[in-house]
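Much of what follows relies on a compact textual record of a protein's fold. Here is one such record, which you should read through line by line:
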Amino acid sequence: MPQLPKLYRDVILHCRRRAWAYRRLAEAVRFLNRVQIVDFDEPAIHRCEQLKKRKIKIGKMDLRIAATVLERGAILVTRNLRDFQKVPGLQIEDWSQ
């Protein structure tokens, strides 16, 4: 019988944690619904190859991101100004400040 209150508390705690997790998941889904996800398509691949030939010293994935942004004529929002400033013609903004 003394276990029943502890078990009850454990069940309540478990339910609260699960409800919190579902709220966080719902928030993430709502956020991601507003974000446009773009492909690393053929024009971006071609641009990436051009950037590689220029021997720009940034990471492989950053180079792909930069190529994708350049091909779309978009602005890259990032805190990684150090690397992305090395890419000619790339428009970047840092919203973290």
